[in-house]
Design goal:
The protein is α/β, with parallel strands linked by helices. The protein is built from 10 helices and 7 strands. The termini are close together. The mean pLDDT is 93.
Length: 213
């Protein structure tokens, strides 16, 4: 949708699973999510680089999805955030792990705890976003990057492989964090769940706004 890249996880489903105390359902949801993100992080175990172009809001699980790519291109209008702390939860699909490796554990902790929205330019300065593009120029910036670095692909792959050797991110790590997320979700109070439901309503209103001609 215009102005939206990804608003994150299926909060309506998560609320329903929490209300039913459905641990198995939450585990299935979390494990499927982290498996996909880890596959992207390790470049599908192929000699390629995965890339993403962000041209709108990337929030919660949407931000985690972006972070799982090897290369992040973002337009200046893009906004990023991890709002889970606002309803007494945390982003359990890899945000902390990805941010700790892209920036530092201290930055990861600060971003997860803040719940605030970050502009693309701020994250570019932190090294979380690789390429910052003017609005409407994200695809052009991506192809420019590919053209300029085409002759260095072998080196880029080697550097990425070295980074993953030095500071590996395993699927087990993501699953272990997902287990903590499930435990935390099942411990939410009725007040916390009502906050989540209000966010579901806000997501629905944003979808309706961008879909209206």
């Amino acid at each position: 949708m215009p102005g939206v890249w990804n608003l994150g996880g299926d909060l309506r489903l998560i609320v329903d699973l929490v209300r039913r105390n459905d641990r198995e359902g939450l585990e299935h949801y979390a494990y499927r999510s982290v498996h996909e993100l880890h596959t992207n992080w390790v470049s599908l175990n192929l000699p390629i680089l995965t890339a993403v172009i962000i041209q709108g809001d990337a929030l919660g699980g949407g931000f985690e999805a972006a972070l799982s790519s090897n290369l992040i291109v973002a337009e200046k209008r893009a906004r990023f955030g991890l709002p889970e702390i606002l309803f007494n939860l945390f982003p359990g699909m890899g945000a902390y792990s990805f941010l700790a490796r892209r920036a530092s554990p201290a930055i990861a902790h600060s971003m997860v705890m803040s719940g605030r929205i970050y502009e693309a330019e701020e994250l570019h300065k932190l090294g979380i976003i690789d390429v910052l593009a003017e609005d409407g120029k994200g695809e052009e910036a991506f192809y420019d990057y590919v053209a300029k670095n085409a002759g260095r692909h072998n080196a880029h792959r080697a550097i990425l492989s070295s980074r993953q050797q030095i500071n590996p991110l395993t699927l087990k790590e993501l699953q272990d964090v997902a287990d903590i997320w499930v435990d935390t979700a099942l411990a939410l109070s009725r007040t916390d769940i009502r906050k989540m439901e209000r966010l579901v309503g806000a997501q629905d209103r944003q979808r309706a706004r961008v879909q209206t001609p």
